[in-house]
């Protein structure tokens, strides 16, 4: 889906390592404002600290040593991008417990990431990347085991230095829309981060018939991905099959910790067909204008042909000799002053090229020999 603005934390069992961020419930964490599954983040004042926990799994067949570090990150098009040429200013703020654990095959280890903000740090926002990788332990190397490529994971770090009022968390919900997809009908709502902290709110859609007292009993759940400040994400949820067709008032409600946003919209659910009608301009200006243009073009070609055949080609052509069998004529032979052999030949050539139709050919020919 569109709107993902952070480096994702990949959990792929086909790799020798997988990493995930464990959601926090700590009131001192940034995500006293919610649970972000792909970011290390927190809001704290100078001299304070906050913790987040990550889980590392060894999917390989040998003993691994987990290595964690903090690196510099550039923000490019709302995405934190690694920059190996620079050191992070907050690298010294981070500590890890345990720091470099040994991880046996097919085992997990939970590691605390502790961010301590030095006293006297100015109010503001700091960003970086947490690098996680694992390397084979020396005992594994000594056994001559073949070493696979070493994956490295980059997890975004967001630190708000200050209070919740100084580093606000706010977001808005746009109107709910209804679209079709290969999986079925989707309810969609645009979530926009208007604050200064990353968010990943969860929410639900509630349906009530526009007329009458009918309501759909169950709330329809939706979730989001990490949304950076100033960015947006379209959250979607499948419409259950037992929702009847009709005009529904949809209430979208999302929450990020103590922060809540709502929007109310009207949608028409048909269950079949396309919910998006053709644009009025396209409907009015499509086929009728094309037909009109073709008609005018055909008429212009016909007029041009008659003009050219009568005026343009006459100078170099010889008249067709036509015997006039009128009883009132005094001459045995007479000539048609309009029709010429070259004109008829040219007309036939245009017919063969498809420039004119057979009906146009007959009409022009009849005019030539009136």
Task: Offer a few descriptive terms.
370 residues; alpha+beta; Immunoglobulin-like; 5-stranded mixed beta sheet; 4-stranded antiparallel beta sheet; 21 strands
Per CATH, the superfamily of the largest domain is Immunoglobulins
> What's the CATH topology label of the largest domain?
Immunoglobulin-like
In the CATH hierarchy, the architecture of the largest domain is Sandwich
- String of helices and strands: EEEEEEEEEEHEEEEEEEEEHHEEHH
Helix proportion: 10-25%
The low-confidence runs, each spanning 5 or more residues with pLDDT under 50, are 1-13, 26-36, 139-147, 274-289, 316-339
Radius of gyration: 38 Å
Tally of discrete structural domains:
3
Main beta-sheet annotation: 5 strands, mixed
Number of strands: 21
Q: In terms of structural class, how would the helical and strand content be classed?
A: alpha+beta
Terminal CA distance: 71 Å
Number of helices: 5
Average pLDDT, all residues: 74
Basic shape: elongated
Strand content: 35-45%
Strand order of the largest sheet: 2-11-10-4-8
CATH class of the largest domain: Mainly Beta
């Amino acid at each position: 889906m569109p709107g993902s603005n952070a480096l994702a934390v990949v959990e792929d069992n086909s790799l020798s390592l997988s990493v995930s961020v464990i959601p926090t419930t700590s009131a001192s964490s940034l995500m006293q404002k919610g649970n972000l599954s792909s970011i290390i983040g927190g809001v704290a004042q100078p001299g304070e600290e906050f913790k987040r926990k990550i889980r590392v799994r060894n999917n390989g067949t040998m003993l691994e040593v987990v290595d964690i570090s903090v690196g510099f990150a550039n923000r490019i098009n709302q995405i934190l991008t690694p920059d190996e040429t620079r050191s992070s200013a907050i690298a010294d703020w981070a500590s890890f417990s345990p720091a470099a654990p040994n991880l046996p095959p097919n085992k997990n280890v939970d590691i605390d990431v502790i961010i301590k903000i030095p006293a006297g740090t100015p109010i503001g926002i700091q960003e970086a990347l947490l690098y996680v990788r694992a390397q084979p332990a020396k005992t594994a190397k000594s056994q001559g085991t073949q070493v696979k490529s070493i994956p490295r994971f980059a997890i975004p770090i967001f630190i708000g230095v200050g209070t919740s009022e100084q580093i606000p968390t706010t977001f808005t919900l746009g109107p709910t829309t209804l679209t079709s997809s290969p999986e079925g009908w989707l309810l969609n709502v645009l979530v926009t981060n208007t604050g200064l902290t990353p968010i990943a709110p969860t929410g639900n859609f509630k349906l009530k018939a526009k007329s009458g007292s009918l309501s759909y009993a169950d709330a329809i759940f939706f979730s989001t991905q990490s949304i950076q400040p100033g960015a947006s994400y379209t959250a979607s949820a499948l419409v259950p099959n037992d929702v009847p067709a009709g005009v529904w008032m949809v209430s979208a409600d999302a929450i990020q910790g103590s922060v809540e946003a709502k929007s109310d919209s009207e949608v028409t659910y048909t269950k079949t067909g396309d919910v998006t009608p053709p644009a009025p301009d396209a409907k009015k200006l499509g086929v009728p204008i094309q037909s009109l243009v073709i008609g005018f073009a055909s008429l212009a070609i016909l007029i041009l042909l008659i003009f050219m055949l009568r005026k343009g080609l006459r100078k170099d052509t010889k008249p067709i000799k036509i015997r006039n069998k009128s009883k009132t004529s005094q001459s045995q032979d007479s000539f048609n002053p309009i029709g010429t052999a070259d004109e008829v030949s040219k007309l036939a050539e245009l017919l063969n090229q498809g420039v004119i139709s057979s009906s146009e050919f007959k009409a022009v020919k009849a005019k030539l020999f009136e």
